[in-house]
Amino acid sequence: MSTADQAPTLKLGWEEWVGLPDLGLPALRVKVDTGARTSSLHATEIETFGPQNAPKVRFLVHPIPGQFDLAIPCSAVIKDRRDVTSSNGESELRYVIETNLAIAGHQWPIELTLTDRSGMALHMLLGRQALTDNISVVPAERLCQPELDYSVYSSASIRKSAPKRALRIAVLSREDNYSTRRLVEEGEARGHTVEVVNTTRCYMAINALAPEIHYDGKRLPRYDAVIPRIGASITQYGTALLRQFETLGTFCVNGSDGITASRDKLHAHQVLARHRIGMPSTAFAASPKDTANLINIAGGAPLIVKLLESTQGKGVVLAETKKAAESVITAFRGLKANFLVQQFVKEAAGEDIRCLVVGSRVVAAMKRSGAEGDFRSNLHLGGSATSVRISKEERATAVQAARAFGLNVAGVDLLRSETGPKVLEVNSSPGLEGIERTSTKNIAGLIYDEIENRVRPTPLRRRIAPASS
């Protein structure tokens, strides 16, 4: 494409079709008005974000006049904020952005002010400041340049050509750990604004018309995406908060249902069984009279007894004999703890495979080995990790397991058994430190690739309430 300086003279009428490609708006009908100095774009839900030394603005654009159920989310760097006087003499303080204007195959940068033009027949005004020396305007004519088509706003069409834009992202986390810091660091390096939000300091206004989330006395802004890093101890409250974000239409990297199911080990194994995914034989019972049968169902001793909500290897016991198994089960029942009994895969020899799934593929894998004398391979318990090459079957199993829970980011733990890979656990909040250092891959960057792909400026179809009679 040529720039305006290189382009031949363009003749414009009072109405033309243009594009704003950097904003993800390939087709707009505009009013060309040489009487107006400033160009303006119809925008709603205008909201600033980003650092004070480089602020950005987010807004929605309704590209088709009269069709307010279709909105394109946009963002841009703020160039200025200035008073603009409209044709009816009213003055308004508006944000000013700079973006490329495209007409008939030519592009050049223009300034645009953001304002509500919902009452106007055309949602963009092209003022004289945007018209270069090689443009002539004939006020008596219209559509002198090729006409475009609103069909470009179909979901399939716009996703292919959607530009990357600065996003506002929340990381739900109560901890200042490696994973949280990496997500903030990587997001900001890509030009996004990433805010760490303490999950338990949020509270919710739950109603049908205007659901909200508040934080430290203020309503939280609209986020493009939420990355949940919810600790096991606050799963119930954390997933309730995620449901509120989902109600608001925010893209959540991992959804509330998947996190809830993965955190309850009994529920998780039932999900795996429903999807016919290989796992160690597992048994669960409430009555102490069923202890012997429970042990037999799991394949007899040695076996594993684990709490339903255990994490990082805590609450997981290896019972090497039937008598030891009975003792552990009796002790857990005495504590009124919920637990399950599981087959011990001897051939795994205290090793498991952590597969990191992002989107629909395994992006990294590592083999974890337990500390000497410990059957548990968790890194938090002194285990070690090395890079590992996984088989096609292991890769497919990991992706299938993550998909069964509807998780976009998951750590799937596998055991290598004589009968194929067995899924031990699907972690909905996998740590990044071990897998990044072992694989030497930028896992945080791959997570942002998935987020950027999922929240590109695709049309938002909104339900418009019927007018009252």
Automatic annotation (TrEMBL):
Entry GO CC: cytoplasm
| Cofactor(s) for this UniProt protein | Mg(2+); Mn(2+)
From the Swiss-Prot or TrEMBL record, what is one GO molecular function term? Answer: ATP binding
Q: What is this protein called?
A: Probable alpha-L-glutamate ligase
Domain ATP-grasp intervals: 269-452
Please list the GO biological process terms of this entry: SOS response; translation
Q: Which domain of life is it from?
A: Bacteria
PROSITE patterns in alphabetical order: ATP_GRASP (PS50975)
Coiled-coil blocks:
none
Organism source for this protein? Answer: Phaeobacter italicus
Keywords, A to Z? ATP-binding, Ligase, Magnesium, Manganese, Metal-binding, Nucleotide-binding, Protein biosynthesis
InterPro entries the record matches: Asp_endopeptidase, ATP-grasp, ATP-grasp_RimK-type, ATP_grasp_subdomain_1, Peptidase_aspartic_dom_sf, Rimk_N, Rp_bS6_RimK/Lys_biosynth_LsyX
